[in-house]
Structure formats: structure tokens, C-alpha cells
């Protein structure tokens, strides 16, 4: 296959982002700032001729993608929704206060109090496994379940774009951070910092695998 360059955009700010709530498979609308985040990303990417555009099947990702495509200089790009690039499912912890959630999850593992401390000590995948183990309903995704879904997503992108080119993917903070951590760790990308709402990261899919090209580029006004 020819290389596929994927422009990974984190959706604009939502109300649950604003209130610092866990937002995985649950959803909430974009705030005014979130629409502005999407518009800035659209302006930043307006000269990229996307062969295809994708977003996770959430309202926040879909609406962000629509803003981006509306600003693009190459009209007519169709938008494909995919559940494979949803955010991590947080199960019982969906909608909970983020700081409280990570305190509850981290404390049994050496007294870790924050998400930052958890991933610094144990890594992104361990944070998924810790959450899945703590979920009394068993709905939160562990690392294996999560990556099985994501790898189906990468296969989807490869199958759809055998001739290569540039594609847009509007996804989510933990998902983008997880991708960069798994495939760009050896290149020194700092995933202790979350990608900003409306930020752009780039990866490239080739026959040899997945390479991270950039992380958390924040468009300017």
C-alpha cells in the first residue's frame, strides 16, 4: 500500500470537558469555545486535500469534523463515522469528576493520586487495566479490548485508502494520546501532556507499521 497520512484532530471543547468530567462513550455538545477550537483547526488544515474524512461516532467528533470540512478549500469530502476511533470506554466512571475518578483508581496502586502519576509510574495501558479492574459493572475497556478496537480502525483506514494520501480523523484526547504513546514513545513524544481540544497530531500508516509524525500541534487564531 501507499503511505496514508492521518491528521488526528481532537474534538473541540465540550461541556463535560469544561466541567472536568470523564467523557468516554458518553457525549456532550461543543461549547462556544469548542466551536472556535474546531474553526481554528479547520483554518489550519484548509489547504490539505483530504482523500477521505473520518470521525468517531460521537456528536462532539462529528460536529468538529463538520466545522473543519466546511473551511476546507477542497469541497465535497465525504465524512465517514467509525466506532473504532471512539474514546476509551470508562464504564461506571463515565460522567464522574475526573480528579476523583483517578484518585479512586490510582490509590490502590501505590497511593497514586492523579492520572499523570498513574501513567508516569505504570504507563497508558496500565491505566486502562486499572480502570477496568475498578469498574464494578465490568464495562470499562481494558487495554486488550481497547487496542483490539483500535487495530480494527487502522485496518479500516488501510483498506479504504490503498492508494495512500491524506485523511482527516477527528477523535479524542486519550485515544490520540494512546496512539502516540504506543507508536511514538521511542521518538520521545511526551504524552504526559494531553492533546488540546482542536489540536492536530499526525501519523503515517505504511506497510512497515505506524509512525508518529507530530503531536499536539495547536492552531493559532
Structural account:
The protein is an alpha/beta fold. It is 39% helix and 19% strand. The protein has eight helices and six strands; from the N terminus they run βααβαβααααβαββ. It has a six-stranded mixed β-sheet with strand order 3-2-4-1-5-6, with helices on both faces. Helix 2 packs across helix 3 (59-70) and helix 5 (115-122) crosses helix 6. The mean pLDDT is 97.
Strand content: 15-25%
Number of helices: 8
What is the N-to-C succession of helices and strands? EHHEHEHHHHEHEE
What strand line-up does the widest sheet have? 3-2-4-1-5-6
* Average pLDDT level: 97
Main beta sheet: 6 strands, mixed
Which shape, going by the Cα principal axes? Answer: globular
Total count of strands: 6
Instruction: Report the C-alpha radius of gyration, rounded.
Output: 17 Å
Helix/strand-derived category reads: alpha/beta
Q: Please give the share of residues in helix.
A: 25-40%
- In the predicted model, the low-confidence regions spanning at least 5 consecutive residues are none
How are the SSEs placed, and which strands pair?
Elements: E1 4-10, H1 15-18, H2 32-44, E2 50-56, H3 59-70, E3 79-82, H4 98-106, H5 115-122, H6 124-134, H7 143-160, E4 165-171, H8 173-184, E5 200-206, E6 209-217
Parallel strand pairs: 1-4, 2-3, 2-4
Antiparallel strand pairs: 1-5, 5-6
Helix pairs in contact: 2-3, 5-6
